[in-house]
């Protein structure tokens, strides 16, 4: 980490999921809980294992196909229904349970919470006159529903969602589009996020400074070639970086 490369920014780009909003439980645990109400119809443990297997097959099938990955991000319910239907079929269970199983999964999956200090940090950044933009992949309806639920939208002068802009991280156009709308040079903008490729390496290639949110304080992977300009373990640490960069 080389904080000497950080100059005081005119704007900050924030990632949403995994940065400002945290999942209460991973997807795997949500599927496990979703199986329970159907235990009288199909063995819940076997169904859970079948769902994991179906998910692994799906990921293998799309790993080299960016367009298929994009379709799943923009309409995740379709992929979830395919996964559930395949698992039920594999067990010889009633495939008509697919929609109910997915609805149960999504009920658990929507349980999210604000990252500690998110509200206070965004409010303080606003008070400092730092322009804030949100840059996130995914389905616009889902993402805007989260913003509304947690009352985050008012913090941002610019909200860029993949489905609405047509650009997804780590595509260069996702970041350059934000810079164009902000009318700022890359050297005047920081990106803050939890994903080493999407939020750190990709924006750095365009000249932005990138702050990695390592909320579990696990440190960089041993084989990582990515070097964030700074690493934080809590969102309020952004304020300390700002002060140090003056």
TrEMBL record:
One of its GO terms (biological process) is riboflavin biosynthetic process. Keywords: Hydrolase, Magnesium. One of its GO terms (molecular function) is hydrolase activity. It holds the Pfam family Hydrolase. This is Phosphoglycolate phosphatase. Its cofactor is Mg(2+). InterPro entries: HAD-like_hydrolase, HAD-like_sf, HAD-SF_hydro_IA, HAD-SF_hydro_IIIA, HAD_sf. Coiled coil: none annotated.
């Amino acid at each position: 980490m080389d904080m000497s490369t950080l100059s005081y920014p005119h704007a900050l780009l924030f990632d949403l999921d995994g940065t400002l909003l945290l999942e209460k439980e991973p997807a795997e645990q949500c599927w496990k809980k979703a199986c329970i109400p159907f235990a009288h119809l199909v063995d819940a443990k076997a169904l859970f294992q079948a769902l994991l297997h179906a998910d692994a097959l799906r990921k293998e099938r799309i790993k080299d196909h960016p367009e298929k990955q994009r379709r799943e991000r923009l309409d995740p319910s379709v992929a979830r229904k395919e996964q559930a239907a395949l698992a039920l079929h594999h067990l010889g269970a009633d495939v008509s349970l697919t929609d109910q199983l997915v609805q149960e999964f999504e009920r658990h999956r929507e349980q999210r919470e604000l990252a500690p200090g998110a509200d206070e940090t965004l409010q303080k950044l606003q008070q400092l006159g730092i322009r804030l933009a949100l840059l996130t992949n995914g389905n616009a309806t889902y993402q805007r529903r989260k913003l509304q639920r947690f009352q985050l939208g008012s913090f941002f002068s610019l909200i860029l969602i993949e489905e609405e802009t047509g650009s997804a991280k780590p595509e260069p156009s996702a970041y350059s589009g934000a810079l164009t709308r902000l009318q700022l040079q890359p050297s005047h903008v920081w990106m803050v996020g939890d994903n080493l490729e999407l939020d750190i390496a990709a924006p750095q290639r365009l000249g932005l400074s990138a702050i990695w949110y390592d909320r579990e304080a696990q440190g960089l992977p041993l084989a990582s070639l990515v070097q964030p300009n700074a690493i934080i373990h809590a969102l309020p640490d952004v304020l300390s970086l700002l002060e140090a960069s003056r």
